[in-house]
Amino acid sequence: MRKFARECATPVPKLWQVANAMVSDMEASLSSSDEATSSLNMLVSYVSPLPAGINEKGMYYGVNLRETNFLMVCARLEGKNEPISDLYREEISIPSNVMVGTSQELYDYIAAELAKFILAHPENNDEIAANDKKLGFTLSYAADQAKLQPDLSQLLNGRISLLGGKEEINEINQALEKHGVNMLVYALVDDTVGNIAGGRYYNKDSVAAITLGMGTNAAYVDTAQSAPRWHGSLPKKGEIVISMEWGNFNSCHLPMTQYDASLDAESLNPGSRIFEKLISGMYLGEIVRRILVKMAQETALFGRSVPPKLLIPYLLR
């Protein structure tokens, strides 16, 4: 255990090494479209301007699409720095037959559930035009927005395949219209970018957001001039949101133990998503299980034999 503790140690000098390596990869990714120059794939978000917490007023709706489920939310924004009221949320599992179907079948299912959600939590008559009938749509995986109008988004996930990007939003909006949802999706962004927008509504000084759940990511606000990969005219406020996609960050300075290395080698994507495998909820339980198995084998932690259940991969979540 002492050896393991030493391998996991993160003294300040090592943290600086990791931080400096990440900054170097950030700069390399932003300055080049060649992903081979960096372990990071910094994605420029074309969501601008961000909320200010002043002019946003009325009932707003949003969808967060994940790998096996989606979350529907609605909230009444009062504007003028007033707190959010009437917040409702509902999580829906995606049926297995929809999971293996086409993207249009997925959007039809989401639209049908959203129609029921809106019916249960309707707008007031004086709010009908307040939010321009826009539906927020966030993704809990990478969204590259460089090829989509009007907000230039392209999904980078195997579950949802795209040829162009604009077609993706069109399919979603067609599904909404088909099921009587009088709203339009204008942008697809990953959920960390959405978190920054939410933080900015409450505090204009919010400049970064970190998602640390089953996966992990970070996004931050920067000037458009700092991102050579920006396409088109610069936003009026001159600020943009950049999604780091830092789950894929890798460096020789990361505190990799034998348990981290074996988990990575036996994973479905060895050599990929290293940082995510070190810190996210998807993998931490498995690392703990491997450590317990090693301790049980060498110190009879649980008696003379290792409990059979403890030998089941990813038992701990």
List keywords for this structure.
19% strand; 9 helices; five-stranded mixed β-sheet; alpha+beta
Description:
34% of the residues lie in helices and 19% in strands. The two termini are 22 Å apart. It is α+β, with helices and mostly antiparallel strands. It is built from nine helices and eleven strands. A hairpin with a 3-residue loop joins strand 2 (58-65) and strand 3 (69-77). The protein has helices spanning 2-8, 12-31, 96-99, 103-120, 166-178, 191-202, 258-265, 274-279, 281-299, and strands at residues 43-45, 58-65, 69-77, 85-93, 135-139, 143-144, 154-155, 188-190, 208-212, 216-223, 239-243. The strands form three sheets. It has a five-stranded mixed β-sheet with strand order 4-3-2-5-8. The protein has a four-stranded antiparallel β-sheet with strand order 1-11-10-9, covered by helices on one side. It is globular, with a radius of gyration of 22 Å.
Topology:
Blueprint: H1 2-8, H2 12-31, E1 43-45, E2 58-65, E3 69-77, E4 85-93, H3 96-99, H4 103-120, E5 135-139, E6 143-144, E7 154-155, H5 166-178, E8 188-190, H6 191-202, E9 208-212, E10 216-223, E11 239-243, H7 258-265, H8 274-279, H9 281-299
Parallel strand pairs: 2-5, 5-8
Antiparallel strand pairs: 1-11, 2-3, 3-4, 6-7, 9-10, 10-11
Helix pairs in contact: 4-5
